[in-house]
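fwd from M.: "can u put these together and see what the complex looks like"

so here's what she sent:
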Amino acid sequence: MNNMDGKIAFISGGARGLGAETARMMAACGARVIIGDLLDDAGHATAEGIINKGGGALYTHLDVTAEESWQAAVKAGVDKFGGLDVLVNNAGIFFMKSTEDMTLADWRRMCAVNLDGVFLGTKTALPHLKARAAKAPVGGSIINLSSIAGIIGIANFTAYHMSKGGVRIYTKACAIEFAPYRIRVNSIHPGLIETDMAKQVVTELSGAMGSDNAVRDMFVQSHPIGRIGEPKDIANGITFLASDDSAFMTGSELVVDGGWTAQ
Amino acid sequence: MNRVDGKVALISGSARGLGAQTAKVLAAGGAKVVIADILDDLGQQTAAEIGSAAAFVHLDVTSEESWQAAVKFAAEKFGGLHILVNNAGIFRRQTTEETSLADWRLMTAVNLDGVFLGTKSALPVLKTCAAKDPVGCAIVNLSSVAGLVGSASGAPYCMSKGGVRIYTKACAIEFAPYRIRVNSIHPGLIDTDMGRDVIAQMAGPGGTAANNAVRDALISWHPIGRIGVPMDIANGIAFLASDDAAFMTGSELVVDGGVTAQ
């Protein structure tokens, strides 16, 4: 667990899953957190859960594909807590489609959420991150959720791979671009993690493999460590990258995949 | 800072530099630490600075007997071993043309044999402790940015660090059933005795002016605008060694101020 005292963090897609776990962990480490999501009820509930434990949290509606939505969400967070030190571009979608089955509209939907969302979040948060980083002892930090799907390929996950590969290298370019502003930018690459999105991955594959259990067993065996990940495995990694303990890390890939891509 | 309460760590090459800083961070995080090094005086001094949570043992990483004695010492002194940090290493600025077979073999002896022997010697104790631990045990191997990209003047060093990088992944797969995680860390240039020696070897006989010019060039090589400090790497090692990295194995923690992102 890494110290986040005094930091203000914005987490897209923070209503549930990895984003919610990250928000809870950062709050437990001393940060104030802004949760942006499309899912208003779940987002309010996550923020209230943090506040009830004595933490600082705000929920704000966010459609990551819309620039105005990002501007309104970031403004709400900055108005509430006074600035931004950390941005976690966590929101993302998954669907399974072969290239032959995929339409241009499918492809563009993946780009809109998983790539435009990261760009717009970065661009919108940047002025606020710059302002605080200039005065902070170490600086600001952006963490982008890529995936092992940004490192290796799997059949029929094509569009998802494209988006996560894009995030992986966009992260490195931003790291170089924002280094003079004292803003570090790193990516995190989860394996399969026990979340609603993972359940969707399992369901989409189960048709081809016979049952959810068969898919689940296949995924457990794909991770040499012998299990699927838990949200806190990823939240710990994001918190490390957000904290000053990773002060000399920028443009790096934190692979948290139970050994999947080491093979 | 990541907690490592109740764990016992052995750190090779920890009399000074990154190893010593790592020992201090792990001890501050709640671990017992064994400082292992060929530099007896400095090693004892580092252990004394840390206090009762630390003990020094002589270690020549190129010798299997020396490793066995060091691991036995750790297990007897603190009752087990949960974390092995294969940190000891040497750097030589040598092109292929300048490198003799003896030079090459010295590099493999320290930077590769040292990691293998440490891993092999510690493995039985790590396995036993991992079987009883809620999360398991961890090995952290010091690779380098030189294990990721090549440089014109350090082929043997790059070879050794590239070897450590992939040996780490192979061990990660091999030891996963034992609940032992194995990860590598890849520092950029860090301000240690070795880091200053790298600068001196690159500067050659040009004195302070040449030294400063090399230092400035190396600072601008890091997009983040500085060279690293030992704490930057010690924090990364402590994260990998802690249960906070419970789902990480076979991974590369690149802590290089953006050098290899370019």
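replying to her w this: Chain B touches chain A through 40 residues (CB under 8 Å).
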